[in-house]
Amino acid sequence: MRINSKKFQNIIIIWLFSWLLLFVFLPNLIIIITSFLTHDDKNLIKIIFTLNNYKRLFNSLYANVILNSINIAIITTLFCLIISYPLALLLTQISIKLQSLMLFLLILPFCTNSLIRIYGLRFFLSARGFLNNFLLYIKLIDKPIQILYTQKAVIIGLVYILLPFMVIPIYSSIQKLDKYYFEAAKDLGANKFQIFLRITVPLTKQGVIAGCILVSISAMGLFYIADLMGGAKNLLIGNIIKNQFLYLRDWPFGSAISITLTILISGIAFLLSYYQLDDYKA
């Protein structure tokens, strides 16, 4: 029985290793090598190694797009956190049946393609959409507000799509809190605000960090949201990669941007994970 169990374990390990090798390591290795090759109009690439693809990233045009992507990712993460924390806290205060229903409703949009949801949001925010019509009807505005094709629209779209990725880790961390901490704090005379500030917030830090990692990393790569909501003036780094591969067919430069984005995202994930690990040790 033990031999069979060991064989099964080895099969799983080999299967996982093969999957990582074929679908993670090799594609990334190809992208890394391509990023150091030279662009060729006829054959896409020429086997001439160069660093020019990375040097082009220091061009002000691309540097501004990278900074804009980081800026939008930070703002999106902050908005998701501000909305998600009170929402997750409220979810834990209601009955279990209602919690299950609310969580189901939170996850339900995932059953629909995110592209369709973004088209729905576009219609809602458009000049003749429901929002503007409603504001005009109650005479709060005199003319439609231009929301689409601005940076605000990109951030609204990202928050709309990524909000569940922040709510669920925070909700999970709040759910795991030991109620005895709250009772002890009450016995010692702490009020609700003090309990929240000194017990709830520090002990749910892990969920907040996990949510921030998920949202910030995803926010930089969702190029179709920037395409549909922000137009040509509000590009993310993902849009530049898409354009290089699909339209300009400059695969070496597209690969160089992809590697830069991977390093950037890995750096953010490492810093947040290190902070999380450091918090565990403390």
From TrEMBL:
Entry keywords, A to Z: Cell inner membrane, Cell membrane, Membrane, Transmembrane, Transmembrane helix, Transport
Any one of the GO CC terms: plasma membrane
Domain ABC transmembrane type-1: 66-272
Organism, as annotated: Candidatus Arsenophonus lipoptenae
Transmembrane parts of this sequence: 12-37, 61-89, 101-119, 153-174, 208-230, 251-275
Family, as annotated: Belongs to the binding-protein-dependent transport system permease family. CysTW subfamily.
InterPro entries per the UniProt record, alphabetical: MetI-like, MetI-like_sf
Membrane-related topology note: Multi-pass membrane protein
One Pfam family this sequence matches: BPD_transp_1
Keyword Transport: yes
Protein name: Spermidine/putrescine transport system permease protein PotB
GO biological process: transmembrane transport
PROSITE patterns to which the protein is assigned, alphabetical: ABC_TM1
Localization terms from the record: Cell inner membrane; Cell membrane
